[in-house]
Each structure stands twice: as C-alpha cells, then as structure tokens.
Amino acid sequence: MNGDWRPIAGFTWEVLCIALAWSLAFATIPAMLLWVAGGNYPSNLFWLAFWCNFGFTCKLTEWLSNKYRERQKRMLISAQDLLKRDGRPYVLYLRPFKDDETTSRLLNLSTEEQELATVIHEIGPFVAYGEPGEALPDPGAARMYIEYEGWQSKVEASMAGARLVVARVGTTDSFRWEMMTAAKVVGPERLLLLVPDDEGLYDEFRQKAGELFPCQLPEHQFRRPRFASFKSHISLEGLLYFEPDWTPCLRRLQTPFLRQNYWAPGVPIFKTALRPIYERFGVAWQRPPLQLPQILGVTLLLLFGAFSLYVMALLFVQLLALVRQHS
C-alpha cells in the first residue's frame, strides 16, 4: 500500500480562484472575435485593456500560488510518519541544502521537488534529511532530522537501506563524501544523479568523478540559452544513471507535447525521463496522458494568431485602397 499521502495538495479555494481567473481571461478571446465579426475594430485602448487583463491575471495567480504553497507547508508530514504509513522500501534524496532555494518557481502551484516527489513516490516513499534549524521545509520529500555529531554514519546507514538513492549533483565536500560512500554501499543500479542546468558545475563534478566512481562520466552538450524554455521551470538538465557494470547513461529532460498541466507541469517531464528507472525496479510505467486544457489553450492561441493575421490583412487592404484613392 502507498498510504494516503501525496506530495502535492489537493483541490483548494486557491486552485478554484486560479481556474476561474484564467477561465474569465481566456473567455475574452471568443468574445473579442464575436465583437470584431460584428464589424467593430479594436482601438489602442481596447488592446491595452485586453493585455492588462492578462497581466492582472498573472499577478493574481502568483499571489494565490504563494498562498497555496504556504498551505502545503502547514500540511507537511515527517519521514517517520510516512514510513509508518507506507511499508515499501524508501527512496532517499540527497542534495546540497542551498539548492532548496532554486527548486521552487512562481506561476505554478507546485515546486520542482514536489513534482519530482510525485513521480518518485510511485517507486517508493520519498524521504530526505532536512537542513538543521529550518523552521518549515519546502514541500516535497518527507523530511527527517539528525544531529550534526555522527551524521555520516547515519546517512551511510540510510543509503544502505534505500531502494534507490537520488542525488542532486553538487561540488561540496559533503556531497563528495556521500558519492564516495554511495559507490561502496549502494552500487550502480540503485544510484540516480540529477544533473543541474549548470555546465560549469557538471564539468567540475565530471572531472573529479574518477575519484568517486569506478568510471568516467560522459561529456554532455548543454542546451543553448534560447532552448532553455523547453524544460519548463525545472532547473535540471537531465538524469544520470548507471548500468550494472557502472556504464553511465545521461538522459536529457524532454517536455512531452500537450501532456503538461498548470498544476504540476514538471510531473510528465520527470515521468518520461525516469522510464528506465521504473522498468529497472519492475514498477509499471504509464505514459503521461494528454491534457485537454493544454490542447484547448494551444487551439485558442492558434485561432487568435490566425485571427490577428486576418485583421492585419484587412487593415492592409483598406490602407492600400486608401492610397490608391488618393494617388
């Protein structure tokens, strides 16, 4: 049994308000089309109001998203409670604590760590060590806390007992020790590395990998900046996993077309990339479903673009006729 815990909270008044706000915003598009079809032509003031409406909706969404995150922090569950509810072998998440600041983005209702946790939870309960002294951790992996004294032996024991160890690549001394220990007590088939979208950091880590693993990590051509938007808000370039003989495999994150939603856009990205890990542990993998809201949104944008071209063509024809009339 997986228990009743989920990394992302359910339907709340914040979600309802966001849905209503965007429904009203997009409803202005067909209304405008009908208005123009009746022989009216938008003025500059009209276009200003039209785009201000969408700008206001974005700011309202940002505010409601922050309220939603605060609610989720108040609903957190400890790693100990999660493991009592869920009897499956756990998945341990390791990362430099400073990276917690980079795994949350505005204009969506879930953090990057929550979206990763949603997918990993299908493999096993997702737990992590929390930063000592933090008041409330970010939502995502269920946290557990240990004293600084003797932390290495406790982390090593946790790695040894984990079904899978997921580690976000870093260059700190603590992370180097964790990877050296993982190579000894975890083994290649139970180790998964998350590669941040930082070419310099990966190159530094790769150059020292020979001291950590019995293999060399592959070179990788990172995406150029203009292609970064294809990864949504996620701060990762890809996933690095190993074959039984320590052969490394670096899998770039890809955005599944028309399979994202606003509430957790990173979930289908992670689920698609993690398919080899699902298969390795015998967990059923299903392709993320098509999302009707995204299909409708793309359709509306295409219609709006086509209509804009139509209006521009009409204006050009009228302008041309006016020039000929006065020539």
Characterization of the model:
The protein has 327 residues and is α/β, with parallel strands linked by helices. The chain has 2 domains: 76-280; 291-327. It has 10 helices and 7 strands. The chain has helices at residues 13-37, 44-74, 79-85, 112-120, 151-161, 173-185, 199-207, 266-273, 275-280, 292-325; strands at residues 91-94, 126-129, 142-144, 164-168, 191-196, 236-242, 248-252. A 7-stranded mixed beta sheet has the order 3-2-1-4-5-6-7, covered by helices on one side. Helix 4 packs across helix 8 (266-273) and helix 5 (151-161) packs across helix 6. The termini are far apart. Residues 226-230 have low confidence and may be disordered.
Span between termini: 81 Å
**Helicity level:** 40-55%
Q: How many strand elements?
A: 7
Element pattern in H and E: HHHEHEEHEHEHEEHHH
Q: Strand share of the residues?
A: 5-15%
Summed up, what is this model?
The chain has 327 residues and is an alpha/beta fold. It contains 10 helices and 7 strands.
Considering the chains and any ligands shown, give keywords for the structure:
2 domains; single chain; elongated; 10 helices; alpha/beta
Layout of SSEs?
Blueprint: H1 13-37, H2 44-74, H3 79-85, E1 91-94, H4 112-120, E2 126-129, E3 142-144, H5 151-161, E4 164-168, H6 173-185, E5 191-196, H7 199-207, E6 236-242, E7 248-252, H8 266-273, H9 275-280, H10 292-325
Parallel strand pairs: 1-2, 1-4, 2-3, 4-5
Antiparallel strand pairs: 5-6, 6-7
